[in-house]
Write a structure and sequence with these properties.
Layout lengths: L2 H10 L2 E6 L2 E6 L11 H4 L17 H4 L6 H10 L5 H4 L7 E2 L5 E5 L4 H6 L6 H13 L7 E4 L13 H18 L3 E5 L1 H8 L5 H4 L3 E4 L4 E6 L2 H6 L4 H15 L4
Parallel strand pairs: 4-5, 4-6, 6-8
Antiparallel strand pairs: 1-2, 3-5, 7-8
Helix pairs in contact: 1-7, 4-8
This protein binds uracil.
Uracil binds next to loops.
């Protein structure tokens, strides 16, 4: 992507780009940030101890211990799911949206009111910011796949309970296996902690590449767009996370 276009998308994300000493430096809310932008490499505080392989043949359904459905029947399974009590309180299940062959899989928390109504993840204000974040990376929304930890809206937008996330996990794992993404971007605490089976804060999980699952799919954690709307000063760190993700994915053409 050319520099001008990226700067345009960074502005849509709410970041102003300052040119300093020949390098691009995103600053939050037009406030200049001292120093030079960190390169993606310097943001990596640690990497997976195993080689990060995107080898599509090394991930087996047996690792998931769940039956193999094709994509359409997986959708159907999700639609008919009554495994937890969330389904009774929501309008419809939200399977996920986008390209089932995407290199990038974005995983959020749970559908909210807008998503519950429309049956699609990230369609509200947070979704608009997510779209801008993706564009700044060089991805149109439809080029990636977007899913959530749970497929049904929790009442009053509360966090999904661990048992609800567990009920939904086989569906998400099956989606990961179908998509075979080169990278998973976990947005927000609920996504990061559930995927990584961790109770560490997002601020500590971000900034490095985690191996996900038996195939050790590279996983990058960043802040949830809804949090970024409330705390725009964190957008610069989020952009660093997205650059880290790009260092694995390569720049989309
Ligand atoms: N927040 C999420 O985590 N997921 C959505 O689909 C919408 C908002």
């Amino acid at each position: 992507m050319d520099e001008q276009r990226r700067n345009h998308y960074l502005k849509m994300m709410g970041l102003t780009v300052w040119q300093r000493r020949g390098q691009l430096l995103p600053a939050e809310n037009g406030i200049s940030v001292e120093g030079v932008a960190e390169s993606p490499a310097s943001v990596i505080q640690g990497v997976a101890d195993q080689p990060l392989s995107a080898d599509k043949d090394s991930f087996s359904t047996e690792d998931l211990a769940i039956p193999r459905y094709d994509w359409q029947s997986l959708k159907q399974q999700v639609r008919q799911c009554q495994a937890c009590t969330l389904r009774a309180g929501c309008t419809q299940t939200v399977f996920g949206v986008g390209n089932p062959q995407a290199d990038l899989l974005v995983i959020g928390e749970a559908p909210g009111a807008d998503e519950d109504k429309q049956g699609e993840p990230f369609v509200g204000r947070a979704g608009q910011l997510l779209n801008a974040m993706l564009l700044a990376m060089g991805f149109k929304r439809e080029a990636v796949f977007i899913a959530n930890i749970v497929k049904c809206r929790p009442p009053n937008n509360r966090d999904p309970k661990p048992e609800e996330a567990s009920c939904c996990e086989p569906y998400l794992l099956q989606q990961v296996e179908f998509i075979q993404p080169k990278l998973i971007l976990a947005v927000g605490r609920i996504a990061a902690q559930n995927l990584l089976k961790s109770d560490i804060a997002v601020g500590k999980l971000r900034g490095r590449i985690h191996p996900f699952g038996a195939q050790k799919i590279p996983l990058v954690v960043t802040y949830h767009p809804a949090y970024l709307l409330r705390s725009p000063e964190q957008k610069r760190k989020a952009w660093q996370d997205l650059q880290l993700a790009l260092s694995v994915l390569g720049n989309p053409s």
